[in-house]
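Input (Polysaccharide export protein):
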Amino acid sequence: MKKLSFLLLLSVVLTQVSCISSKKYYYLQGEYDMKNSSANYEPIIQKDDRISIMVTSVQKEMAEPFNMSNFNNSNTNNINIGYLVDSNGNIDFPVLGKISVAGYTVEQLKLMLKDKLSNYLNDAVINVRILNFKVTVLGAVSNPGVKNFETNRVTLLDALGEAGDLTVFGKRENILIIRDYQGVKSFHRVDISDANFVNSPFYYLDQNDMIYVQERKAKVDATSFPSLPLIVSILSLVTTVLILINR
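Output:
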């Protein structure tokens, strides 16, 4: 009877340990605020960025002078297309000349260009995109390296997904984001196991962000975790059999 009680107690303890340990491996736990303060986030254009600007109009020939000719060449290498933002934050735009663009969001630049082009085009439609949107993911992930994105709205989860997700050794509650804005680096730590992470200013990434996933010190805990459910199942089965035998 004592052995039976011991096995039953051990089974309960291991079940609790398994549940507690598994929480380390989940994303976005708990309740979260639906306001999602980061929903309207837009990356800011910076020096050394390469941006695409396309101007269209009902009168196609009127819009052509405001577009770079190499955008129409499908054989052009992506690295050579678009406007390079110089060290002063300017680009050389056809007809308009030098324009300061650093510090603008994509939407703000669209509005500014539409205003400047209003003397030439009444119905201008402007499309702006950052071409060099890339981030670097390092540390305890399956596929570390530089990740390039076509979209300019990239979340930390997008980047981790491109990196093949965290390994079992990755610390989900302590991910470091290194952000470089106008030559000034800042360091931020985020906890993606907390559901309210979606409201963090670092839910969306900036171009050239660096993400470092720290590795857990106690690898034994991580490697033993997958076997806990099996151990619990076996003990539960043994306990059930012993209860039936002792009836």
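Residues 49 and 85 are 5 Å apart (CA to CA).
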